[in-house]
């Protein structure tokens, strides 16, 4: 590319290379509309080169001792810590979230890197001794080969770090396609991965849109695909890659609810709800987008509105900002349109966050915290994932009525309850049909020792990203049954049955 605007590179065979494509997109600062870089939509030949590079590297990487792999990730987590401020600044510039939230984005990915460094304790097989006379059976967890990851715009550090560290640590090689909207922090993380010792070809990056996604789904050399993003795209990826014989895991859309019981600690609950609903401008698949107030808690709406009004909206770089802009002009238009539909369909707009005045950033894609009450299940603002700082407030007479409402929603990413009653919390966790449950915790994303366990329409594939489940996803279990005879053993007769004796 010519001119002063830098071009985002591809990573193929350990080298950051300029794409030869004619198809480029701008990476735009959502608070200012400044063009930060141009990102290429890779050609079919470039995708093939990246996959071929990963396939070649797999020949030696799969045989690299597990301790050597682990030490690379020990070094990698150190480098991420050392560059935390730099990574957060890049992320905020291209994605819009506040600097503290950007550091949190990086940190939650860093936790997975730390877990990957312990791969020696995770990729363990099993042994059954003497299952028959002189016979042992054991399992090996062997890498699959070339794997691919497709990541979304809303967590451009955390979600790539969910994927390639665990895939690589288990002995696979990887081709990553980050979001074309904010690929710069992902590329910086890849630079640090190479600095940490990831060998050439083990990690590759291609950029692009639907054509590149389809190429990764179809490529005969790729054995597994991991995806995080919208339900529409995730369903396409799952169906297409599965049809091509690949393992696939897709974490997709959500409509996360919280139940608030009247006995909940009021101030703590309101703080948690406001942070989970409006943090990151609502652009989280685990954002709290629906609150169901039970009984007397329905009187808390004015307090919730006051809490939302106290939040500061500005560019993510500004001190004290609680939420920044939406990622793009298209996202702004979509969220504003859904707010309009909510009003038209009869919901009560308790707090209108449209067109806020943000000093010094009049071109930013800003929507301030927005609250609807009187929301019904048939309304668009309830049916659709808004992916903006919009909170739907619903009411229920009892906790069981609220549980039935949540269980009737097709999505199953996360849910929460706010209460001081252990009995109520126990009943909730047993009866709710959602993959990730918080008790006085508004965004119950598990730590890396466990796995992200979204369910129902929020997930396709039976194994989640990171944690123990992803070790199974990125490995093939090989079962070995062996018998060794003593040197002086007497030969036995021919056995034509299926029994081992």
UniProtKB/TrEMBL annotation:
InterPro entries reported in the protein's UniProt record: Ald_DH/histidinol_DH (IPR016161), Ald_DH_C (IPR016163), Ald_DH_CS_CYS (IPR016160), Ald_DH_N (IPR016162), Aldehyde_DH_dom (IPR015590), MeMal-semiAld_DH (IPR010061)
Assigned EC number: 1.2.1.27
GO biological process: one example: thymine catabolic process
SUPFAM superfamilies noted in UniProt: ALDH-like
EC category name: oxidoreductase
Cited Pfam families: Aldedh
UniProt keyword list: NAD, Oxidoreductase
Domain Aldehyde dehydrogenase as annotated: residue spans: 16-480
Domain of life: Bacteria
An MF annotation (GO) of this entry: methylmalonate-semialdehyde dehydrogenase (acylating, NAD) activity
Stored PANTHER family: MALONATE-SEMIALDEHYDE DEHYDROGENASE, METHYLMALONATE-SEMIALDEHYDE DEHYDROGENASE [ACYLATING], MITOCHONDRIAL
NCBIfam families: MMSDH
UniProt family annotation: Belongs to the aldehyde dehydrogenase family.
Name of the featured protein: methylmalonate-semialdehyde dehydrogenase (CoA acylating)
């Amino acid at each position: 590319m010519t001119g002063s605007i830098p071009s985002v590179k591809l990573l193929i065979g350990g080298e950051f290379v300029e794409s030869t494509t004619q198809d480029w997109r701008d990476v735009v600062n959502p608070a200012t509309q400044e063009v930060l870089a141009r990102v290429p939509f890779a050609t079919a030949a470039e995708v093939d080169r990246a996959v071929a590079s990963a396939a070649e590297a797999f020949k030696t990487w799969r045989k690299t001792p597990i301790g050597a792999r682990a030490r690379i990730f020990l070094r990698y987590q150190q480098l991420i810590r050392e560059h935390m401020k730099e990574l957060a600044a890049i992320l905020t510039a291209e994605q819009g979230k506040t600097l503290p939230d950007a550091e949190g984005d990086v940190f939650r990915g860093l936790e997975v890197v730390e877990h990957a460094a312990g791969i020696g304790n995770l990729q363990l097989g099993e042994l059954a001794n003497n299952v028959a006379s002189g016979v042992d059976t054991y399992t090996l967890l062997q890498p699959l080969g070339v794997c691919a990851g497709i990541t979304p715009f809303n967590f451009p550090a955390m979600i790539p770090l969910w994927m390639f560290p665990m895939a690589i640590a288990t002995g696979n090689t990887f081709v990553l396609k980050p979001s074309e909207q904010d690929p710069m922090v992902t590329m910086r993380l890849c630079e640090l991965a190479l600095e940490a010792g990831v060998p050439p070809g083990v990690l590759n990056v291609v950029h692009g849109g639907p054509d590149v996604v389809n190429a990764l789904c179809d490529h005969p050399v790729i054995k597994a695909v991991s995806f995080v993003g919208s339900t529409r795209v995730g369903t396409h990826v799952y169906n297409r890659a599965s049809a091509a014989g690949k393992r696939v895991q897709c974490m997709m859309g959500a409509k996360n609810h919280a139940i608030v019981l009247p006995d909940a600690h009021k101030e703590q609950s309101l703080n948690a709800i406001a942070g989970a609903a409006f943090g990151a401008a609502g652009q989280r698949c685990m954002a709290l987008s629906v609150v169901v107030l039970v009984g007397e808690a329905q009187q808390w709406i004015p307090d919730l509105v006051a809490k939302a009004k106290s939040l500061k909206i500005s560019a993510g770089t500004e001190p004290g900002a609680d939420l920044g802009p939406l990622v793009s002009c298209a996202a702004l238009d979509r969220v504003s349109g859904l707010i309009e539909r909510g009003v038209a369909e009869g919901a009560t707009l308790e707090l209108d966050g449209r067109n806020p005045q943000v000093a010094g950033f009049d071109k930013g894609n800003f929507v301030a915290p927005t609250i609807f009450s009187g929301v019904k299940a048939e309304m668009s603002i309830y049916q659709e994932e808004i992916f903006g700082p919009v909170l739907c407030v619903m009411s229920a007479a009892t906790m069981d009525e609220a549980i039935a409402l949540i269980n009737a929603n097709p999505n199953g990413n996360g849910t929460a309850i706010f209460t001081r009653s252990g009995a109520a919390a126990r009943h909730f966790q047993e009866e709710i049909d959602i993959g990730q449950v918080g008790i006085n915790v508004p965004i119950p994303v598990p730590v890396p020792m466990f796995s992200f366990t979204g369910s129902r329409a929020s997930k396709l594939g039976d194994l989640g990203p990171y944690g123990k489940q992803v070790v199974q996803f990125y490995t093939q279990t090989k079962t070995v049954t062996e018998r060794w005879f003593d040197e002086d053993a007497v030969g036995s007769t021919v056995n034509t049955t299926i029994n081992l004796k």
